[in-house]
Every structure is written in structure tokens, then in C-alpha cells.
Design brief:
Elements (H helix, E strand, L loop, with lengths): L2 E5 L8 E5 L4 E5 L4 H7 L14 E2 L9 E5 L2 E7 L4 H7 L2 E2 L3 H15 L7 E8 L5 E8 L5 E2 H6 L4 H20 L2 E2 L8 E4 L5 E4 L6 E2 L5 H17 L9 H12 L3 H33 L1
Length: about 290
Amino acid sequence: MPGRPDKLASPSEDVVARSTTDGRVTLLAAPELAEALVARGLLRDVPLSAIDGAQPSRFAGRGRPVLLEVAGNRLVAKSMRRGGLFGRLLGDRFLGDGRARRLVGLQRELEAGGIATPRFAFARVRRGAGGLVRLDAGTYELAGALDGAAFLESRPPRSQRRAAVRAAARVVRALHDAGVEHADLNVKNLLVRAGPPLEAFVIDLEKSRRARPLARAAAVRNLARLLRSAEKLGLLGAALARTDLVRFVRAYGGGDWRSWFAAARRRHRALAPLHRIGWALRGRAAVTSS
């Protein structure tokens, strides 16, 4: 179906929009990829997995990420999905395209600000009955990168692990300094590329919130969430030593690192019992249903 060129009304002027003639599908794309994405079939009203040549990505997570080859580039794309109660009711359907447009604007702003995050490739809106829409997003693949958990579980040399911990702390601090509270900051949403040079990136910015400046309480929430994910994944005391936690917070907090460490640990300890109960219940439910 032919596309209709347009400029996206967005804080990012370097994003181009293409729509089907009936307006049911809209593609918001990086200018260098727009025509190739249309030719690749991204204006068809089909799931990402049905795009010709789509392959499962090695990265797990909500939305079933896929790999797409477009104009000689490898892209990682996924469908946006709701969490919580609304996720059970609506799944991958949303009441409008606001989440996709906000993600595009945030992604472009962070790239312009030098935050280490994968380059924006596209977002897609598929409109259905009753005003509900389905949303997809794609970024350029970071070749050779592993999610933080996979990197730690690979048992890298101690010097490399320490460098990765510091790099991850710096990218989280840069994100917070840019006013962004990550909606799901966890070990798997920090990617590590061994290099050299070793690099860390933050991914999965969907639903993230921005406030300038970011309140300290919001930053502490993020740090506690990150610590909680390390516990949930069984990394603490095994692939990730206590000294690594100190190393992370020192790289994050600088001269004020002790107060950051204390605040994050207090929040983690206050909420940990509830989360552990939830993890246990979900584990039992999974065993029962298998």
C-alpha cells in the first residue's frame, strides 16, 4: 500500500512519517531508513514477526523482540505491551499513539545529548477497531552487546567485570542527569559491549518518565529497582560481588556515593519481602501450570 510522506509533529524534526492512504498504519522513521522500511513491508498491517525475513532476537523480554535486516542494517524491533492489570485486559492494545510518539521524542533527545542508548530506527502505529492501536518500536542493533545478566553470567575477567560495572553506573547517572527515570531499570536493560573499548548502554526506554531536574527520590527508586533485579536474577554474591555494588555506586554518586548507597539499600530492604513473596507465588504458578 503506498505511503504518504509527511513530517512528524514532534520535538525531533529529524523524524519522518509515512502513512497508508487509509491512515490505518503510520510509520515514524529515521530519515535514512524511511524508504527502505516502507519497501521492507513495515506499512503492512501485520505483526513484526510476519515481516519477511524477521528472526527471533537473542534478547528476551516483553514484546518478543525480532531482528530485521533493512538496507544493510540490523534492527532490533519489538511490540509494546502493557504490564499489570491493564496488560491482562488489553495486552498489546493502547488507547492512542501517545506512547510511541513520546518514545520517539525521548530517544532522539537522548541521542542528541550523547546518552549511550541504541540509535532510533522507527516506531509504528497500527490502528484497529474502537480506537485501539498496536505499537511497535525498533532501534539499530548494538553488534556484539550482551545484556548485563548474560555478560555477568559469562564470568568475564575480574578487570572486565569491574569496568562494566563502572560503565553501567556512568550511563545510569547520565540518564538521571538528563532527567529520565527509567520505567524498568533492571540488569537486562543495561547492555555491555566488551570492545575494546568496553561500553555500556541503556535500552528499553518505553514508559520512561522525564522531569528536569529528576527528583532524588526518583533516582533512588531506579537504583533500588536495579538492585532488586540483580537479586531476582540470582546474581548477588555469585556473578556480582558486594564490592561490585560499592563500585557501581561510587561511579554513580562520586563524592556523595555513601548517601546514595544507603538510600538505595533502605528502599530495597523495605520492599524486598513483598517482592520475594511475589516471586515465590509466580514461581509456584509456573510450576503448577507446566
